[in-house]
Amino acid sequence: MSRPEADQLLLDAEADVRPSPQGVAARRALLAHPVLLMVGIVLASLNMRAALASVSPLVSEISESFGLSSTATSLVTSVPVLFLGVGALVAPWLGRRFGTEAVLFCALLLLGVGILVRVLPATAALYGGGVLIGIAISLLNVLMPGLIKRDFPDRAAPMTSVYTGSMIAGATIVAATSVPLEKAFGDSWEASMAFWSLLAAVAALAWLPQVLIARGRTGHETRVAPGASGSAAPAAPRSVWRSGLAWQVTLFMGLQSLWSYVLIAWMPTIFTDHGMSRSTAGVIFAFNNLIQVAGAFAVPLLAGRMRSQRPLIALVTSLVATGYVGLMAAPVAGAWLWSGILGIGQGGAVGLALTLIVLRSGDAVTAARLSGMAQTIGYLLAAAGPLAAGAVYQMTGSWTVPIALMLGVCATALAVGLFAARDRKV
After folding, report:
1. CATH number of the domain that 328 lies in?
2. What is the number of structural domains in the chain?
3. 228 in any annotated domain
4. Where is the Major facilitator superfamily (MFS) profile domain (predicted)?
5. Number of C-beta neighbours around residue 424 at 10 A
6. Mind listing the pLDDT tens digit for each residue in 114-145?
7. Cβ atoms within 10 A of the Cβ of 185, count?
8. To 5 degrees, how large is the angle CA 273–CA 133–CA 294?
9. What was the pLDDT predicted at 25?
10. Which residues pair with 223 in a beta bridge?
């Protein structure tokens, strides 16, 4: 490996810094254990939707336990999504200050605590735990693309497939087992949800060796000084917040997150409101999550081989729109079909949105900044989805209007995504 290539590989993903010799040594030590790093990435990714997916199959029990209205119930899923955006504001600073590995480790611990707080017998704890969960997941969401760009610069698209696929697999497992766990624990929805804190604890243990290996790296980096070593002064990096392309990537991220979190919050309820049993609705919801893995793996791989990703934008938005139309026209009779179509579209969309962050970035620094922007604004936008859908459903007594609004979201995502998919760099 030539020296320039090594510098690109070892460039800290969270800041405009170049590692000192101590930092270079720590990074090489981490990359000398690729299996350990891969296990950590997969286990962390399994947690990135699990705590959110555990709520939807149990939402009716949660609502009955606390006497919540449809709008208040929607806040149970909206609050974590809202704090996905708020937490993203501080994630890059935390990564610079303490190092990616340490922040990921602490985020997993915080996630486990949030899951346990959420099942305490108080409405404030139900929402407060959601705040902790949202912040924890936001740290994982924002730092993972930068870490992949930093440590796997030549395999960014395949590695994006690995972590998005793992993320969706985690949600699938949780969705499929939440109701059976509730029954196994004596009809306790609290125990069923609390169980998944163990998954966060296992993932944190997997990151602990990486934290120990990286000790001493953060704080040894130095900013690249203009004219250092006789080199020309580097151009000041352009702010991603002033880039039209960055905003297009951000809006596509937000809109696809919005349509997905509406489904995460309300898909089983749509089925049960039309006469389906709760257990069957949970299984179909799990199938929806499972089939997302196919889209999440395949679409980033295809995107990495294409100069423009416009055909993929059209494909995923069309699939999601078709699935929503099916939920409106024949929610029970075609439940498995619509769930599968939506799943492929949802998985492909989230994989494509995350891949666009990497493909539209020229280096790891830009990838980290664009990831922070896209997920801050994107998740703040997405948080409105479950809340608005629940409020409109409560006002109209029907899912027709909320689903029609989601079709408008699909049309907007298509228009924005066609711009974001152009072969350009932020």
Report:
1. 1.20.1250.20
2. 1
3. no
4. 33-425
5. 14
6. 999 999 999 999 999 999 999 999 888 878 87
7. 14
8. 65
9. 62
10. 17
